[in-house]
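Whiteboard transcription, Tuesday session. T.W. wrote the structure tokens on the left side:
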């Protein structure tokens, strides 16, 4: 079988096992609470491993459970090698790890080393004086000549990226919250600490890491002002995919990832295709794969997250196609995803979460899982969970949302206008508790949940779906299994087949005499779709050489050159090509 033209694909037996895997992302705070505290915990995840195994999951990505003041729900780490009591104990972690292994699954930990919490002992030392040995673990600068911040870089959560420290008269850099101080990777001691903490977890037997905003760790050491000539003009071009990033990643690979045989995925903020090829091409010895977010900005007018607009369907399709084709040509590997804990639910954002909720959820799954890469399923996605129905800002918890609610009003919006934006864009949309059943607390907690439960849990919950052959859950299970059985999912060459169709996204995957065809109608109206002539002649003769692998509706159209797709109709066919 040909390998889809990917000459740099690993030839080793097991080194790229994760290409056929599906990763499940667990936001522990909202997954399962075993104590009645209202906050999910590690033992809750252990309890639900059978569920994940049933789904066919190979890798469980556990989001941060380290000691943290929880200003950014654990992405503000105060101690990298201890478990936050809110989530349990190290014994709970070891038990989880053993139970994961027992099921032949793998555990992936979230590593947050662009910054630490200002509660970390390194930072507490660093701020004591300019000559403290930990001072240089962080990024300090004098005020600008006329006073004020050293440069005009903006924090991702709103406001300036610098915090003034009274005691020592300098500013420290915080690209996220003001309690998340950026670590100084130029300092070899910092890199040594990172190797140490990664080794600690690797020694405990975890199989991999998800590296939080890892492409921001190398800053332009001149710290120039952003003159705004390149949007969004907030300084990011001076620290995104920065000058020494590849060197730093190669060091981590050489010292930790490779010796322990880890699977790694980098979260790449505002990155480029060219950089992601370098990060993930195995010859470069950096990471296994990368997340990028371009396809999740197609509803940001001019890149502005805090302004609303309907999403640009053509752009969504072009971005997927560009990254599929580009990563394939460059020998890189995509982490495929539509949801995570920082994004509103794709179901509500790109499709219909009301009348066509089930069809929509299945359509998104087919469209994503047919592509090349390693798919990620974010908790709740596999049961078609929509955005919750927010009634007021008081129901929200996320630091970014609360900051922006204030900032939008400062910019002149009324509270009502600001809330209308926040409720669409808030990261809390994906952070409401997992509905396990229709009982009290949705089976998530016996107490009061830390954030509201979506009221639709009596209808949308796990229990409802496990035994229903037509459920979204069963649909995901099928797609996850197909990827493991059929090499074409990992190897096939991607070709886009929809010629700017206003409703339909269609693509093929080609491998030898085999093909996959994926056709999805992203609209609430029937859509007419015609397969291009060149494909039709190879694919539709002799009749009967195709098999429907998955569909979003009870009955699928017959595979013909011209088809009428029902609302949110999405289908995946396996085809034996007729080559002359
Ligand atoms: C990443 C995380 C996000 C966090 C940020 C800062 O984007 O996914 O949740 O707020 O990094 O650590």
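and on the right, the sequence the group agreed on:
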């Amino acid at each position: 079988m040909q390998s889809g033209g990917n000459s740099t694909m690993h030839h080793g037996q097991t080194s790229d096992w994760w290409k056929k895997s599906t990763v499940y992302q667990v936001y522990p705070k909202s997954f399962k609470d075993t104590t009645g505290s209202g906050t999910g915990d590690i033992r809750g995840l252990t309890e639900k491993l059978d569920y994940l195994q049933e789904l066919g999951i190979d890798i469980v990505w556990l989001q941060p459970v380290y000691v943290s003041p929880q200003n950014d729900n654990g992405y503000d780490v105060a101690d990298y090698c201890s478990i936050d009591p809110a989530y349990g104990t190290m014994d709970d972690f070891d038990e989880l790890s053993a139970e994961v292994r027992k099921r032949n699954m793998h555990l992936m930990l979230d590593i947050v080393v662009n910054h630490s919490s200002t509660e970390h002992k390194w930072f507490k030392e660093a701020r004591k004086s300019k000559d403290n040995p930990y001072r240089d673990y962080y990024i300090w600068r004098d005020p600008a000549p006329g006073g004020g911040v050293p440069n005009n870089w903006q924090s991702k959560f709103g406001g300036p990226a610098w915090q003034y420290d009274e005691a020592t008269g300098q500013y420290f850099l915080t690209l996220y919250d003001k309690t998340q101080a950026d670590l100084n990777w130029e300092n070899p001691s910092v890199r040594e600490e990172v190797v140490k903490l990664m080794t600690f977890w690797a020694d405990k037997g975890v199989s991999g890491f998800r590296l939080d905003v890892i492409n921001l760790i190398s800053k332009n050491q001149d710290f120039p002002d952003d003159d705004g000539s390149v949007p969004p003009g907030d300084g990011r071009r001076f620290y995104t995919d920065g000058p020494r990033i590849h060197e730093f990643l190669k060091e981590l690979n050489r010292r930790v990832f490779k010796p322990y045989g880890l699977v790694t995925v980098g979260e790449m903020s505002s990155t480029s295709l060219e950089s992601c090829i370098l990060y993930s091409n195995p010859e470069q010895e950096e990471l296994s794969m990368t997340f990028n977010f371009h396809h999740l900005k197609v509803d940001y007018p001019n890149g502005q997250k805090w302004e609303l607009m309907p999403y640009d369907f053509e752009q969504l399709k072009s971005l997927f196609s560009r990254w599929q084709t580009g990563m394939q040509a460059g020998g890189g590997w995509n982490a495929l995803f539509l949801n995570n804990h920082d994004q509103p639910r794709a179901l509500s954002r790109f499709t219909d979460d009301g009348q066509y909720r089930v069809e929509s959820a299945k359509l998104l799954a087919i469209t994503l899982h047919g592509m090349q890469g390693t798919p990620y399923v974010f908790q709740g996605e596999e049961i078609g969970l929509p955005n919750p129905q927010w009634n007021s800002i008081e129901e929200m918890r996320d630091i970014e949302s609360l900051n922006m609610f204030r900032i939008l009003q400062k910019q002149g919006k009324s509270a009502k206008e600001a809330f209308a934006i926040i409720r669409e864009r808030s990261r809390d949309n994906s952070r409401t508790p997992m509905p396990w059943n229709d009982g009290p607390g949705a089976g998530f907690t016996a107490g009061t949940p830390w954030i509201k439960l979506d009221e639709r849990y009596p209808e949308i919950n796990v229990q409802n779906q496990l035994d229903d052959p037509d459920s979204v859950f069963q649909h995901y299970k099928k797609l996850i299994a197909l990827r493991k059985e059929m090499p074409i999912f990992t190897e096939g060459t991607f070709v886009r087949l929809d010629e700017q169709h206003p409703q339909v996204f269609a693509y093929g995957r080609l491998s030898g005499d085999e093909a996959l065809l994926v056709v999805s109608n992203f609209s609430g109206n029937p859509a007419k779709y015609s397969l291009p002539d060149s494909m039709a002649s190879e694919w539709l003769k002799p009749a009967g050489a195709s098999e429907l692998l998955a569909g979003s509706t009870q009955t699928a159209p017959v595979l013909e050159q011209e088809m009428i797709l029902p609302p949110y109709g999405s289908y995946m066919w396996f085809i034996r090509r007729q080559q002359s």
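Someone added at the bottom: The CA atoms of residues 128 and 168 lie 8 Å apart.
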